[in-house]
Each structure stands twice: as C-alpha cells, then as structure tokens.
Amino acid sequence: MAIRNIIQLGDPTLRKKSFEVTDFGEKTKTLLDDMKDTLIKAQGAGLAAPQVGVLRRVFIVSVDDEYYECINPVITAKSGSQVGEEGCLSVKGKYGTVERPNKVTVKAFDRNGKPFTVKAEGFLARAFCHEYDHLDGIVYVDKATDIQED
Ligand code: NI
Fold first, then answer.
1. CA-CA distance, 133 to 100, in Å (whole number)?
2. d(CA 98, CA 91)
3. 50: nearest Cα among 85, 86, 8, 92
4. What's residue 83's pLDDT?
5. How far apart are the CA of 18 and the centre of ligand 1, in A?
6. Which residues, 6+ apart, have CB-to-CB distance to 107 below 8 Å?
C-alpha cells in the first residue's frame, strides 16, 4: 500500500484513452490498494487510474459509506439529469457546474474479475460519470458551464 502522485491538468496522460484490464492479478490489486490510500489521503470522492499515471480502465468511488472498485466499467443506462458542482483531484483549487444524468447503471468487474452491476443516483451517479470520463481522457472542465476558484 502506498500513496501515489496525482497528476494535474496539463499533463498529457490525463487526456489519453485508457486500456482495458486483461490481467486480474497482483498488479491490479496493488494499483487498487494504492488508489484507495491515495483517495483517502486526498479526501476525494473518486479517483481514476490515469490520474495516478496508469492508463488502465480502473476507477474507485467513495461516497458517504459506499465504496466501489470498478474495472473495465461500462455505463449501461442513464436517465434524468442533475446540475451541480464538482471538483477533481487533478484540478486543484477549482470547482465547476456540470450537468450529469441523475441515475446511472454501471457494469464492471471487481478486483477478482467477478462482474457486478451497481445502480446509482444523485451524487453517487455524478461520481461514477466523472470517473468514467477520466478513462476516455475527459476532464470535468470540458463539460462545466462555469469554473470557479475554490
Ligand atoms: Ni476527476
């Protein structure tokens, strides 16, 4: 377990498309453990692997008492909309207003390669959408209608 460096907007890695995970081995488990430590230390709601410089389709989300590790995630359904504020650990000191679906269904694999489905709404749905975007090189500032200093 280790804290990894969170790269910041302007680093080209954040703009790349991540690759599917094909090996559910120790390397992926270590990545997830390190991402969890890193997220806790940074006190964020979610973290995607490209934010720690690893171009793999992996993210974690931690909202209230819910914690998810998603590997090769797919958003299979979206409905409704919500407009609210979000920030990103890769865009320090700022937050912005972003429209997101109010409900999403995410299908992914856990660290053991077992598939699972999660239905989320409200802020949890927002967190899933935000982290999912990172896997395609999209940062919330691309979608925000306004950006403010923290
Ligand atoms: Ni982010």
1. 11
2. 14
3. 8
4. 98
5. 14
6. 73, 74, 76, 115, 116, 117
Task: State the burial class of residue 104 (Cβ atoms within 10 Å of its Cβ: 0-12, 13-18, 19+).
Answer: buried
Q: CA torsion 132→128→111→24, rounded to 10°?
A: -10
How far is 83 from 122, CA to CA, in rounded Å? 10
Tell me how far the alpha carbon of residue 66 lies from the centroid of ligand 1, in angstroms.
18
Distance 81 CA to ligand 1 centre (A): 19
In tens, the pLDDT along 49-78 reads 999 999 999 999 999 999 999 999 999 999
Question: Is 1 a residue whose pLDDT tops 90?
Answer: no
The total of other beta-carbon atoms located within 10 Å of residue 61's CB is 26
Coil, helix or strand for 122?
Answer: coil
- The pLDDT tens digits of the residues spanning 86-141 come to 999 999 999 999 999 999 999 999 999 999 999 999 999 999 999 999 999 999 99
